[in-house]
Design goal:
6-stranded mixed sheet; 6 helices; 210 residues; alpha+beta
Length: 210
Amino acid sequence: MKAFSGLFGGLFGGLGQSKPGCELAPKEAPEGLKLATFAGGCFWGLELAYQRVPGVVSTSVGYTGGRKPNPNYEEVCSGSTGHAEAVQCTYDDKEVTYDELLDVFFNRVDPTTKDRQGNDWGTQYRSAIYYHDEAQRQAALKKIEEVNQKLGSGLWGSKWGGSKVVTEVQPAGDYYIAEQYHQQYLEKGGRMGRGQSAAKGCKDPIRCYG
């Protein structure tokens, strides 16, 4: 994603210019729903994966896990704020379990590479699970243990770049909703102007940049 920063600058007002920071998201889900927050490299593809999950009511992309209040995209991309690109889901746990959301995460993300997803390098591309309660924390740790066991036994072969999960498990903190042009980016067309389906249950391959 960083490789295309110049293109984004041309499309969205120019890099290096002073831009307003992003707004802080509510810390609680609407009544009867829950929040789940994941970081796994470029947030566009991960968001689309969650948009397709039945029981996920809404998604947003944003920035979390950093130091600077109200960061913007350019600041996060510089690596100076400490934030990760993240996806936050609002979901109905009567329709989809948190464990199922974790499965989506591990099916989409390489959890074995530190500060990297594919060709995207930098702390903003680290993989992380930000838990909103103790049950989520326990579920995340259990899932990581299961994944490590499969890696250790060779069941997943060379699926990922490393041999052990390095995904962070951290309490959910301030989550800043990213700029509007990032929201549901791939559904809207991505870089190529070819929208990808966000229909519930869709299994189409996800093109990372559109």
